[in-house]
Every structure is written in C-alpha cells, then in structure tokens.
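Moderator note: this is an archived Q&A kept for reference. The question asked for a predicted structure of one protein chain; the sequence and the answer are reproduced below.
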Amino acid sequence: MVDKLRVGVISSTHGIRGEVKVFPTTDDPARFKSLKKVILEAKRETLELTVERVKFFKQFVIVKFKGIDDINDVEKYKGAELWVTREDAVPLEEGEYFIADLIGLTVMTDEGEKLGTLKDVLQTGANDVYEVAMSGGKTVLLPVIDECVLDVDLEKGEVLVHVMDGLLDL
C-alpha cells in the first residue's frame, strides 16, 4: 500500500494573492473543504503546506496556502502535484478501495486461473472498469459489478473475478 495519495495537480495561478487553480484527481472534489494540509511535490522540491482557504470554480478547486501570499511565490508550482498522507485521506466505506492500492494486484478467475495484473481503474460514471493486462500483451476490461468482481483481498494481493460470457472474445 502507498503512504500518500494524489488529490490534485496545480494547473495555474489564480489572481495575484497566491491562490492556485487545482485540477482535482480525487473522485470527490468536495473533500478539499475539509483538507487541512497537503504535500506539494514540484520538480525540485517537496513542501508540506497548510491549506488556508478553498473555493470552487467550474471543474477546478481554488486553493490558498498559508504563507504564500503573492503570485510570484506560487507561479513556479504550476504542474506540481498535491498529495495527502493515508492518515489524512477520506475514510472509505465498506467495499471501497483507493485506486493506488488496486494497481498491480493479481487478477484470478473463480476457476483458479491467473487472468493477469490489474493495470488501471477506469471511472465511467455508471460503474468502474478494471483494466487487466494479460500475458501476451492483451488487455481485458472487466466491469466492477457484483456479477463480475467477486472479491478484493488487499492483504493477499488478489482480485477474484468471474469472467462473464463474451468478455474474453477478442
């Protein structure tokens, strides 16, 4: 499991008083309202920053950090990633997982065969889709629905799936 989770990327400055426009990479941008501190990772430096205030504008989150009060002080952080520690992450409901914890898990079928390795999680709106890299370079997309994904065991490092008819027809 990873120690920190990415919540956003600074896309640009906002105004002249040190605010930044953040493109959220979390599935719940409202989580920024309760965010107290972040880890900023830029090209050549890593900083722990305290969030002073947050507001929302279109698909962006406008963030003001304590102690950064001028556009010149924050301009160099365009493209920097914002991370939170696992302790500061939003608590998950039963059956929910951080995508970072799922990537790399072994995907096994309910018939005991190794299907491949979980490569990515696509968020489609209706349901998530697991992208599984199979041996030989092929990829299969599995819908994250009860009929297909039977169990996720992070400790064991496995996802147990039922391959529905037609999913492997390429």
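Archived answer notes: The CA atoms of residues 18 and 72 lie 8 Å apart.
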